[in-house]
Design brief:
single chain, alpha+beta, two-stranded antiparallel ribbon, 5 helices, globular
């Protein structure tokens, strides 16, 4: 059941997050949409694990696409983490940024579901992957927000992953990406 919940959470959630659906010609290809009412990313089990200090508890797994010239790809985990990396870091330093995007562009849902959606897209279909040193890569891709069929915003999630621990260090919405 937990695997199903996590798989559904990574699904494309544009329809529940933003008002309007992008035209088919500009839609980002991705997984099947998550059904309305599916559990949120950070549920009671994850809250309890993170509250107990289980820094390595996996909240969700993503797939980083193989890129030409890079030897890093495959499964990457978002763990509870701590102040400098993982979900705890993202919550402390970037939750407000994700929430502002939702609020400004009429999105529904929670900031962490929106963050997870953007993170999954950046890892699965990156427009740019950059080696930022110290065993870390930065992934980004354009995410387009539509309202009433009209493009109102393009942003670039900046997702930093550790190649040694295969975990998400951070994820934040930006105007430029990596």
């Amino acid at each position: 059941m937990n695997t199903i919940r996590k798989a559904l959470t990574t699904a494309t959630i544009i329809v529940t997050l933003i008002v309007g659906v992008p035209p088919a010609s500009t839609a980002v290809p991705g997984p099947v949409e998550r059904p309305i009412g599916a559990p949120m990313l950070f549920d009671i089990v994850d809250r309890a694990a993170c509250a107990r200090g289980m820094v390595n508890h996996e909240i969700i797994g993503y797939t980083a696409k193989k890129q030409y010239g890079l030897d890093f790809y495959g499964r990457v985990s978002l763990t509870c983490g701590f102040e400098k990396a993982g979900f705890k870091h993202i919550k402390i330093d970037h939750a407000d940024d994700w929430q502002r995007m939702l609020t400004k562009y009429g999105g529904r849902g929670s900031w962490d579901d929106f963050m997870s959606f953007a993170t999954s897209r950046a890892l699965a279909a990156p427009s740019l992957v950059r080696n930022v040193g110290n065993g870390k890569y930065c992934y980004t891709t354009p995410i387009q927000i539509y309202q009433g069929g009209k493009l109102v915003k393009t942003f670039y999630p900046k997702v930093i992953v550790s190649t040694t621990t295969r975990t998400v260090i951070t994820s934040m919405p930006t105007n430029k990406g990596c």
